[in-house]
Specification:
Low-confidence stretches: none
Structural class: alpha+beta
InterPro entries: HTH_MarR-typ, MarR/SlyA-like, Tscrpt_reg_MarR-type_CS, WH-like_DNA-bd_sf, WH_DNA-bd_sf
Strand content: 5-15%
Pfam family, one: MarR
Largest sheet: 3 strands, antiparallel
Helix content: 55-70%
Protein name: HTH-type transcriptional repressor NicR
GO molecular function, one term: DNA-binding transcription factor activity
Radius of gyration: 18 Å
Order of helices and strands: HHEHHEEHH
CATH superfamily of one domain: Winged helix-like DNA-binding domain superfamily/Winged helix DNA-binding domain
Distance between the termini: 35 Å
Number of strands: 3
Strand order of the largest sheet: 1-3-2
Organism: Methylobacterium symbioticum
Oligomer: single chain
């Protein structure tokens, strides 16, 4: 078998998954003093930016499936960082809203997030983030 065979080439998908897990670990470690994981921090920031949202829409904004969003919201609600209320238009649905404690948690976590952001930015080649973002836009 030649070294140019597909079996000898690294799988781009696996490499990107490993990179994503590594980056998640960097953010999670940086946010540990704020007692947040990167997914939770991102959810709080989405709510700060967009205001109260139906959980399904919040999941779309965070690029998570609905059940994963629920698992991420539960501890945030228990800590009083988000409030979940019934949707007046559909009592089966819930609306997620950032609380004052959630806004304070964002403020406390922001310096840690910025440090992780700087570390990752230093590791990325110029233009790499733009290329990855363009990949994320593919249907």
């Amino acid at each position: 078998m030649s070294s140019d065979s597909p079996a000898d080439q690294p799988c781009t998908c696996i490499a990107l998954r490993r990179a994503a897990r590594s980056m998640t670990a960097i953010y999670d470690a940086a946010l540990r003093p704020a007692a947040l994981r990167i997914t939770q921090f991102s959810i709080l920031r989405i709510l700060a930016r967009l205001g109260p949202l139906p959980v399904t829409r919040l999941a779309e904004e965070a690029a998570l499936d609905r059940s994963t969003m629920g698992r991420n919201l539960d501890p945030l609600e228990r800590r009083g960082l988000v409030r979940l209320d019934p949707d007046p238009a559909d009592r089966r649905a819930r609306i997620a809203a950032l609380t004052e404690a959630g806004a304070a948690a964002i403020a406390a976590a922001l310096p840690h997030w910025r440090a992780a952001q700087a570390e990752i930015d230093a590791r990325l080649a110029p233009g790499a983030l733009a290329s990855l973002a363009a990949l994320a836009q593919h249907p």
